[in-house]
Amino acid sequence: MNPKLDVLPTALPTPPPPAAERGERWTNPWRSLPRVRWAVQLAYLAFLLLVGWQFLRFYDAVRGGGPIDVARPPSVEAFLPIAALVSLKRFVLTRYWDEIHPAGLTILLAALATAFVARKAFCSWVCPVGTISRAFEWLGRKLLWRRGWPSVPRWLDLPLASLKYLLLGFFVWTVFVQMPLAAIEGFMQAPYNVVADAKMLELLLHPSTTFLAVVGVLALLSLVVKHFWCRYLCPYGALLGVVSWFSPVSVRRDPEACNDCRACTRACPNEIQVHTKLRVLSTECTGCMSCVAACTTRDCLGVTRKGARTLSPWLVPALTLGVMIGFWAIAAATGFWQTIVPPEAFRWAYRVMGIG
Ligand code: SF4
Ligand code: SF4
Ligand code: SF4
What we know:
Layout: H1 3-6, H2 33-63, H3 81-94, H4 102-118, H5 121-125, H6 128-143, H7 154-178, H8 181-189, H9 191-194, H10 196-205, H11 209-224, H12 228-233, H13 235-244, E1 249-253, H14 263-267, E2 279-280, H15 290-294, E3 301-305, E4 310-311, H16 315-334, H17 343-352
Antiparallel strand pairs: 1-2, 1-3, 3-4
Helix pairs in contact: 3-4, 3-7, 3-8, 4-13, 4-16, 6-11, 7-13
The structure holds iron/sulfur cluster (3 copies).
One iron/sulfur cluster is lined by residues 251, 267-270, 272, 274, 280, 285-291.
């Protein structure tokens, strides 16, 4: 007999049981993530409300007959995603940055960059509509679903989730296939494009019955189905989802450590079955880190980069906010943030478009 075989162990060593079975108490070090996320989301919401208030003052000044002594906040262009998509095509074709709504293009590219480095964390940590959607989730749990939100059955979830990709496909096809460069130049110089933000403000200040009905239906649906708008209808989120598919960063689960408690799945706003995945590669993952914060077992759920060791979950919001602020800082410093349209030209465009 080979003497070396004598010293081999007869069986592989068994892994230690999970901490809970060993009677060890474990406190999840990431449990404060949702609270911090709320703080960041509310801070962004407050910032955008300030932007809206500043834009309202600018809008009033332009419509009035006196001097326009209120600065137009460039961040208002975040609400013009279609114009940003058009100017993205123009930039690809001509290498010219959008001079009318430069901040809109900057914000779109920044959001796409966040989707690559940190999945759709823009939705969970930045977008104000995502914050409102989270508020509806909280309200729905308080009013209707104290014992937990009902899940949308898979046979319904998949076709509903494809709606936003259809909408995205429509916009991408219209802009990138249907619009020649001449039409894009015409669109961008047109008074309608110049006043697009003011038109949106008018819609909010004087909503039509149809608009109110649509918002009301969406609000009711958001109380019945978790994150209805974001999960099923938002084409912006769909675009970020497509880019996030290429992201090397994802939530990963260690099946050896997992005790199948499913707290992660219950915490997920997008009803991803986290407890069954090795890596969450879904384009629906918004990098909110609720699952990581809810995990009940040590070293079980975390964030990883493909082929690399485990990363801190704080990296996801840090990268997201870092990219957003970085794009803003570079654009502001290099002249790609402020519109070249002078205040008097806005006044002319407002008159042409019948605003005020
Ligand atoms: S899905 Fe759309 S509306 Fe919802 S958070 Fe993401 S970008 Fe915002
Ligand atoms: S899988 Fe985790 S990080 Fe992704 S959306 Fe669900 S709870 Fe958030
Ligand atoms: S929270 Fe999810 S990943 Fe963590 S132990 Fe429970 S089932 Fe496993």
